[in-house]
Structure formats: structure tokens, C-alpha cells
Design goal:
- The chain is of the alpha/beta class.
- Helices cover 38% and strands 11% of the residues.
- The protein has a domain at 70-177 and 236-347: Rossmann fold, CATH 3.40.50.1110.
- The chain is built from 13 helices and eight strands.
- The strands form two sheets. It has a six-stranded mixed sheet with strand order 4-2-1-3-7-8, with helices on both faces.
Length: 349
């Protein structure tokens, strides 16, 4: 083959290669990683590449009162202290992603949100702040400990050191913003998108971290069909929800609540339901078992106040309420935050 012909074929191949990536990126893949309108999409949508299930949402704050975090906390009086994971730290994005802002607005209360300290979970951090005197200094009326359901056994069904002291209060430095994906238009996502789009037609776990199920009811406004995306760990962690583990969770919460009562502080425990658990009754032909966490912990004797988020949200789904959770995300939306906050306010002891 002559050099001219070789160069000619090379240019043709390069043109096809670049052209494919250019078309895929601008018509499809960029909708996941670089939405042009400045909105964001969910973690499950990004992992599964299911562009027909993306729910673009704009980050904005419309409530009249905001919670405190590191940048705006200047040792003001604190009525409510919250501590938890991504559900407490605004990762749902969209409109009013912090349930704390609903509490602050509706109760006209001062709400401080802190994060678990380093390797410690929320409960351990709270106990450490009790032991080192910081909790007494803050003197909130109530503390809300939040955790996503799938990680509750791992976090709280273990032996906890109730003498821990080397804990610092770590407030969120700034409000959470959408992740900026620095991706060039030539990237492997342009291959993964058509691959997983095709594969999900034959395998509901085509991408190992994300399940895709059909629903018997349309519960999301942005879905082209009655479909839902579920994070893998919602299902793989089911074996950890034994009666023994839930008893240990309850025991640790009761012991923590007893400590806080010595400071006249009320402990509230708020599990954030796994999307799989909350939407379980609406999944078609589901071969996977049910998560009975809420059913197991409800009748147990409690020294703390249990915020039964599943009991709050499930009736709304049965009434046909859409977008309580984002279809493309593991997190709930502002609709769920508002409903849960109103219940806390209504039942506040």
C-alpha cells in the first residue's frame, strides 16, 4: 500500500472516529454530564446512561429561612441540630434540597447542620460531642440523626464506644453544588451509552450498580414509561436487616437518647427510606425480597422519637404523588422533604 493511500484510509478512519464521538456527545452523552441549561441530573442516571430517565433540575432556594452551615454560623443560638449523610447535606439538588430549610422556615427555628467527623458515623459523632462538652455548649432543643436505610445496620448495629471524646463538630463549609464533570467530547461514555441502552432491554441489572424495573403505576413525571432506577446496594444489603441487628440499632439509639436527656435534649432518628423499599409495592414482577426495617423497628420500645418516613411517604405514593424521589437518583426531592418536615412539626413533642 502506497503512503498516499495509507494516509487516505487513516484520515477516513479518524474522521469516522471523531465524527462518531462528536455526534454522540452533542446529541446524547452531554445531556448526562454537561446539560447546556445549567441543570443537573441524578447519580443513577449518570451510572446507567439511561437518558430517557433523566430529570433535569435547577438548584435554587426559595424558602424564607435557611439553616446554618460553616460559612454562615457565627455561634448563633441553635434550636435544632441535624447530622446525617447525603440526604442531610443537599445532594438531592433541585429546589430547596435541604429538609432543614423547611424546618427553619416553618418553625422559625435556628437549625445547624453538621457532618459526621472523619471515620465516625453520625451517632458516634454525636456521642463524642456530648462527651467533650460541645453539645452542652450548643444547647439545642432537639437533635435529628438521619441515615439512609441501606447503611443503618452497618453504621449503628455495632458496638459503639460511648466514651469517645476526640470528636470535632464539622459544619458543611458551603452549600452542596452539582459536580462539574470535566469531560472532553471524545470519551468512553459515548460507547457505554448505546451499550447499556441496548443491554437494559435484556437485563434489569445491565450496569452492575443500577437496577432498572418496570412499575405498575407512573410515579415519575420525567419518565417516558413506568420505570424506576434503583441503586444496587438497596438490594445487596438486604441480608443485613436481621431482627438481631435492628435490636442493636434500637439499643444504641436508646442509650444515646438517655445521654441527651441529661441535657434536656430530645433525640430524633430519621431513616431515609431506600428507594427500593419505598417503591417496593409498585415494582412489577419483582424477584427480590422485601426490606422489613421499618416494620421491625416500629414496635420496639424507644427512648428517642422515631420519624417514620416510610409511613409518611408511602400513602402519598398510593395517592399517585409523582417525584417524591428523583427517578434518576437515590435521593428524595423537595416534595418528600416538605412532607417529612411538616410531619416533624405536627408531631413535635
Amino acid at each position: 500500500m502506497s503512503p498516499k493511500i495509507y494516509v487516505k484510509y487513516l484520515l477516513i478512519v479518524l474522521s469516522i472516529f471523531v465524527g462518531y464521538h462528536f455526534i454522540m456527545w452533542h446529541l446524547f452523552t452531554a445531556k448526562i454530564f454537561k446539560p447546556e441549561d445549567g441543570t443537573s441530573v441524578g447519580d443513577l442516571g449518570r451510572m446507567s446512561y439511561q437518558i430517557n430517565l433523566l430529570h433535569n433540575r435547577e438548584l435554587k432556594y426559595t424558602l424564607t429561612k435557611k439553616h446554618f452551615y460553616k460559612e454562615n454560623f457565627k455561634n448563633q443560638k441553635v434550636d435544632i441540630l441535624t447530622i446525617g449523610d447525603s440526604f442531610s447535606n443537599g445532594h438531592a439538588l433541585g429546589e430547596n434540597p435541604y429538609y432543614q430549610d423547611f424546618l427553619a422556615t416553618e418553625l422559625n427555628a435556628s437549625v445547624l447542620n453538621i457532618k459526621p467527623y472523619e471515620k465516625y458515623n453520625s451517632l458516634e459523632t454525636l456521642i463524642g460531642l456530648y462527651n467533650n462538652g460541645y453539645l452542652k455548649k450548643l444547647n439545642p432543643k432537639m437533635v435529628i440523626v438521619e441515615s439512609v436505610e441501606r447503611l443503618i445496620p452497618e453504621r449503628f448495629a455495632k458496638i459503639i464506644d460511648f466514651k469517645i471524646k476526640n470528636i470535632k463538630a464539622i459544619s458543611q463549609k458551603k452549600l452542596y453544588k452539582p459536580e462539574d464533570f470535566s469531560i472532553k467530547f471524545i470519551n468512553t461514555a459515548n460507547y457505554k451509552l448505546p451499550y447499556y441502552t441496548l443491554k437494559y432491554n435484556f437485563n434489569n441489572n445491565a450496569q452492575k450498580y443500577v437496577y432498572k424495573f418496570d412499575l405498575n403505576k407512573k410515579l415519575f413525571s420525567k419518565s417516558n414509561a413506568n420505570e424506576i432506577l434503583i441503586f444496587r446496594d438497596d438490594i445487596t444489603n438486604l441480608e443485613k436487616f436481621t431482627l438481631e441487628n435492628i435490636k442493636k440499632v434500637n439499643e444504641n439509639l436508646n442509650r444515646t437518647a438517655t445521654l441527651l436527656k441529661t441535657l434536656n435534649i430530645k433525640l430524633y432518628f430519621m431513616p431515609a427510606p431506600d428507594k427500593y423499599d419505598l417503591y417496593y409495592d409498585f415494582i412489577k414482577d419483582n424477584k427480590y425480597p422485601k426490606n422489613n426495617f421499618f416494620e421491625l423497628i416500629r414496635p420496639m420500645e424507644k427512648q428517642y422519637y422515631f420519624i417514620d418516613t416510610k409511613k409518611i411517604l408511602l400513602p402519598l405514593l398510593k395517592q399517585g404523588e409523582k417525584d417524591l424521589y428523583w427517578v434518576d437518583d437515590t435521593h428524595w426531592s423537595q416534595k418528600a422533604s416538605e412532607a417529612i418536615s411538616k410531619d416533624i412539626i405536627f408531631t413535635k413533642h
